[in-house]
Amino acid sequence: MKDSKSILLLVVSVLLILVSFALLWTWGYQFNDLTKAKSGTVYVIKDSTAAANATRDSLKRVYTATINSVGTLDSTWLTADSLKGNLDIRLSEFYKLRNEIAILLKNPGSKADIDNAKTKIGELQKKVEQLRDRNVEVERENARLKSVLEQLSAGNTKDAVQNLRTAVFDNKNSPEKNTPVAVFAASELKLSAMMVEDEKEQETYQAIQTDKMIGTFTVRNNNAAFNNAEIVIVVLQPNGRVLQNSGWDSGSFETREGKKIYSCKIRFEYSKGEAKHLSFSLSTNNFEKGNYSMQIYQNGVMIGKMSKTLI
Amino acid sequence: MYSVHSRLKWGVTVFFSFFLLTASAQNSVKQNFQNAAVYAGIEVGSKGVKMSLLEVGKSSKKNSSFTILKDTSVNTDFISFTQPTFQATLNGLHGLFTVALKNYEIPSDRIFTVFSSGVKIQAEKDDKNSWILSMADSFKKRINEPLRQVNVIDVTEEARLSHLGIVPATRRYNTFLIDIGSGNTKGGYFPGGNTKDFKLFQLTWGTKSVANAVDKRTQEDKTLPNFNKQLYRVLAGEANTEVIYAVNLSGAYNMSDNIAFSGGIAWSVATLMLPELVENPVVPVTYDEVLKFSEKLYTNHASFSDSAIKKNLTDVTLDKNLIGTEVKRVNKVFDQRSLMAGTGLLLKIMRQFEGIYDKKQFFLVKNGAVGWISAYVDQSISGTK
After folding, report:
1. Chain B residues close to A266, C-beta within 8 Å
2. What is the fold, at CATH topology level, of the domain defined by A185-310?
3. What is the distance in angstroms between the Cα of B117 and the nearest Cα belonging to chain A?
C-alpha cells in the first residue's frame, strides 16, 4: 500500500516539473518575441526617413532644373509688345506656382505635402513648355515683321506688294493651286432692322415694321500693303433669296462654291493694320418674317457671318 | 394701194399681239392699281409701237420716282412709210391706247402718246414729215380726241429722257449712258449737275451696221473664222476712229464714274453672260468679263444655248425656267454673228473708258427701251416739261 502511494507522489511531481518547464518555455518564447518585435520597428522608422529625404532631394533637383530653364524666356518678356498682356498673366501664374513649391520643399510636413509638391512641379514643367513655345512663336513673328520693315524702309514697295500678292494667291496649304484667300478679318458684325418714322430711325424686331436693314462690321488687315480693297456682302432672306436694293448695287461674284449673287459691294481705302468700320443699308418693299443671314466676303472667301431673326 | 393679203397679215399680227398683251399683263398690273397713280406712255418708234405702264407715287420705293409695271410692243415698221405699215402702226397705236383705257382702266388724260426721234430723223431724211402729221391726225380722229397732243421728240431730248428714266437719281450726275441701237449709238450725260444741260454723244455705228460692214468685207468666204477676222478689221478701222473721236469729244471720261450701256446688245450680253441675274434690270460688268464673253462667243457659241446655261447653274434658288425662256428669247433675236458684232462694238466703246488707274464701273441695262417714254410721262405729270 505504501509503495503505491509513493509511485503516485512521484508521478505527480514529474508532471508538475513538466508543467513548470512548459510554462517557463512559454514565457521565454513570449519574452524573446517581444524583444524581436521592438527592435524591428526601430529599423523601419529609420529607413522611411531616408526615403523621404531622397524624394525631396530628387524633387528639388527637378524643381531647380525647371526654374533654370525659364531664364531663356526673359527676352520674350522684354521684347514682346503686343503679347505682353498675355505673357504677364502666364508669368505671374508661373511665379506663384514656383513659390508654392519652394515652401513645400523647404519644410515638408507630411507625405501629402511631398505628393502635392510633386504635382505642382508637373504643372510648373507644363507652364515652362508653354512659355517656351510662345517664345519661339514671338521670335519667329519678330523676324518676319523685321524683314517686312526692312523691305518697306528700303523703299522697295513694288517688291513688297509683289511678295504679298504671291502670298495671297499662292496658298501652299490649299489643295488647289492659285486658290484665292482672304487677307482681311471681319469682326463686330451687326445686322439691324430699322423702322423709319418722321425721318427718325429706330431698331425693330418685327418684320412688318421694318423699312430697311442696316449692317455694320469691322475689317482689319495686318499683312497686305495695298491701300484699297473691296468687300462683298450677301444678305439672304428667309426664303433663301438674296436681298437687293437694285440692280445698280448688286451683281454676281465668284466663290469657291461657284457664282453667287451679292446684295452690295463696298470699296474702301485703308492703312495697314487699321480697323475699318464699314456699313451698308438694304431696303425692299416687304420684309418677311424669319431668319436673315449676313455673309461678308473678301476675294471670294467668306470672312464673317451672322444672322438676325425678324418676328 | 396695198393688197388685201398684206392688210390681213398686219391685222392678224396686231390682233395677236394685243391678245398676248392682255392675257399676260392683267395679273401683274391690276393689283398695283389700288394705292397708286398708274400712267401709260405710248411711243411710236421706228420699228413699232411701245407702251409702258408706270406707277408714280408713294408706293414706288425704288430709286426713281416711278416704277415700271409693264411694257409691251407691237412691231409695225413705221419708218418704211408704206400704207400697210402706216395702217399697222395706226392699229397698233389705237389698240394699245384701248388696252390702257379699257383693260387697265387708265383715264385718257393719264395716257401719253409721242413719236420717237428715230421716226423724226428718218422722216426728215426721206422727206416724209407729212406721214407723221397724218398719223397723229388719224389717231386723234379714231379715238375722238381732237385736242390730244402727239409730240415728236428730238434726239437730244430722247437721250436726256432715257438718262432720267434709266439711271437712278443717286447716280444721275456721274453716269454716262450709251444706247447701242441697231443702226446707230446715242447717249450722253449731265455735265453741269442739273437735268437741263445734257451732253449728247452719237455714233453712226450700231449692232446691225457693224454686222453689215463685216458681211460686206467677207465677200465669198462666209466662214466664221473669216467673219471674225473681218470684224476685227472693221472695228479696228473706221469704227475705231469714230469711237475714239466721239468719246474724246464728249469729255465723259473725266466726268463719269459709271458707264451704262442700254440697247438690244446690252440686254443680250447681260442675259447670256450673267443668267443668274435674270431678274435684275441692270447688271454690273467689267471689261475683262465682256472680253472673255466675246472670245467664247466665237470659240464656243453652243455654251450659250438655254440648255447649256441651265445646266451650269448651281444656285438652287434660281428660277431656271425663267432663265431658259429669256436665253431662248435672246438667241432668237441675235444669232452668233450679230452677237459677235454687237459685243465687238460694245468692247470698242468700253475700251475707251478702261483706264489703268481710273477704273470706271460698267453697267448693262436690260430695260432701256422703256426708259425715255417713262421719263417723258413722269416729266409731263410733274409739270416740268
Report:
1. none
2. Immunoglobulin-like (2.60.40)
3. 27
